[in-house]
Prior knowledge:
71 residues, mainly beta, 5 strands, 14% helix, DUF2642 domain-containing protein
Amino acid sequence: MITDEQLNNYRLSGEMVRVVRDSLEENDVKGIVVAWDDNHVLIRRRNRKVVKLDRNYLFQPADEPRKNPEA
């Protein structure tokens, strides 16, 4: 699970993140961290839509190579 400190750093920097949900790259969500609570994170996508995702997914900077969640 991603920590509050990591989420706050992403939010303050405005850095695009990639949320890896499963082994298929087309299911990844890319956007900016907007808010979070104990179980969920709100990500604003480029089209301005907001997506609510579980905190247990793999969060990484969008410009880094994609990591496999099963690894």
